[in-house]
């Protein structure tokens, strides 16, 4: 059969035509979906049913902030709405997606979000009004700042009016006066909060997350004489004397020419799909981490972090050497000081072993019995360590979010143990064949973890120092100093790499986990990745301090250059992801200041430690040192070490950690002589 040429061309065109038609249909459906965002859903219906003068969902990616009230009072995103202007459009919004579909907001980095000039629809003079909107803090939010959600009017004489949020207060600002409602919860916790303020011409009320947080006393009418028409401003104020341009996210801003009652406000919040203040959500550990733009947004940010890392590495070297020298020279005396503590810890371990001892008649082997005995102490220390870590979040307590956070921290500790322990076991097996391993609980790690939490909370440092090195894995294999250095370096690098990978996975996940009504497992995963990052880096930096009883001392003894490189990388990562670069727009500096203080304190303790034993030696030998130079020379000059009692052996090197360093020692071992290193187990 001969097919006509025209038919052949038609046959070839058919797939092309179908493809074009399909693409056009998909484009049309996509456009309809975009237009549908914000014009359907329970929250939209609740707001529009109350008849606002203007309603700005702020959910578009164009240059226009559309008024979805139907009155056409559109506003314009400032700086064309581009990220280069300080605005990020299309961030995940506050509404529960199951009840409202996809919804979005805007994140501002210290700039005005949108403006509607010559807005004649705004309440004027002393007229009643309600202002409504959603706010979420960002890592750049400053704890003592005041951020307007919406405002309008002119300067002087009560002619301006706006809704402003502070960390623990809702504020009505009318230019030459303010009314604060200070019963508000913490609104700078990285979660979306629904904020409303009403004014009936006499009394003002404020609500957060559907709950009333204050009522003002009657206000003289002269206090509020708002200018209108004027420019409606979203995310800013008419000047910056006491209020700041928004550092955070905003969505679903509405203005009403009347007072919404408490029942309608609760109905709006219910329609949004949840109760943020009492429900779950990511911890402040997850909500305080930097975005890629905050961490690597400019060369200045990276260079500042690198400078801090270099300075910290160089600074810590000298006091660490003093500390190690003092420990080496006076080990028997120091070991005698800590012997009572070690005996108490041994007694605690024995009690746990008796508690976990197998019952009569069991057929367990000796090895299995020993493993069973180790579990109770291991589990107890992990459970308590995770509890301490949970209190880095100021909101930690009896609520859903705290349960999610606690589970995530426990999992992060177990993941850290698995990563570092697995690397160590592979090394042992490849070098020495099969090797037995044991779980090791490190109660002293709990003390350090508690100190980290207390310091972080006192300094207001978020996400804080999450120290999870409370447990590990020990191997029954004696290693040379070189092999011990290999294990410590490889395990630490594995933990650092895992931490950075956790951050890369956290970046796209966090916005969805922080959204209203997020699936609980998603929140746990978000907290888990954040805890893995913070705990891994904090534990690595502490473990890499070049002290003889820490992994850093083991690495430095094997290869000083390797230690310098690994410690520098660890400190750089800690500054970038946890402490925050001094040049980052999201830096609060409390973490950096606390870290500097701790480094200085360590240096002072090392010098004091050295001087104590130097003064003791001078008294015992009848030596008098008059000049400062002579005393300084004595501090830095090694002397003959005290004899180590026979029978002292190195402690067991524990590979693996809760969420941090790769190798710790559960006993203080006598330091090896510099000329003949003692193999570390």
Give an overview in words.
With 681 residues, this protein is an alpha+beta fold. It has helices at 5-36, 42-49, 97-100, 262-272, 284-287, 292-296, 299-329, 331-355, 366-390, 400-432, 443-459, 481-513, 520-543, 551-558, 560-579, 590-621, 628-636; strands at 54-56, 64-65, 75-77, 87-92, 104-109, 114-119, 129-137, 147-153, 160-166, 169-173, 178-181, 193-199, 204-208, 211-215, 230-234, 247-256, 437-441, 471-475, 653-655, 663-665. Strand 10 and strand 11 (178-181) form a beta hairpin. The radius of gyration is 31 Å and the shape is elongated. The termini are far apart. Residues 1-21, 23-39, 80-84, 275-279, 358-372 and 644-681 have low confidence and may be disordered.
List the helices and strands and how they pair.
Blueprint: H1 5-36, H2 42-49, E1 54-56, E2 64-65, E3 75-77, E4 87-92, H3 97-100, E5 104-109, E6 114-119, E7 129-137, E8 147-153, E9 160-166, E10 169-173, E11 178-181, E12 193-199, E13 204-208, E14 211-215, E15 230-234, E16 247-256, H4 262-272, H5 284-287, H6 292-296, H7 299-329, H8 331-355, H9 366-390, H10 400-432, E17 437-441, H11 443-459, E18 471-475, H12 481-513, H13 520-543, H14 551-558, H15 560-579, H16 590-621, H17 628-636, E19 653-655, E20 663-665
Antiparallel strand pairs: 1-16, 2-3, 3-6, 4-5, 5-16, 6-15, 7-12, 7-16, 8-9, 8-15, 9-10, 10-11, 12-13, 13-14, 17-18, 18-19, 19-20
Helix pairs in contact: 2-4, 7-15, 7-16, 8-9, 9-10, 9-11, 10-12, 10-13, 12-13, 12-14, 12-15, 13-15, 14-15
